[in-house]
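Researcher: Next entry in the queue.
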Amino acid sequence: MNSLFQILPLGIFQQIGPMEMFIVLVVVLLIFGPKKLPELFRSFGKSIKEFKKASSEIEDDIRTAMEAEPDTKSTDTTEKELNLKADDK
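Model: Structure for this entry, 89 residues:
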């Protein structure tokens, strides 16, 4: 499976190391301040949780639909055959 870095031209993000992450953290701390930072990360965590929940629900719906699809086709075919036989009489 292709990673995001292989699909999109985001080569700059491949070179981020611990020092760069520390600098980003300091800049975020300066922009939002120490009082807003926990609230910001809390809302970010909730957003990630909701995204994972929604994607999991979509995957379950797709799996259910794929499993149920062959059964409905055979039922539809049988009903059509019965209707054709009834029309012949």
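Model: The mean pLDDT is 76.
Researcher: Noted, moving on.
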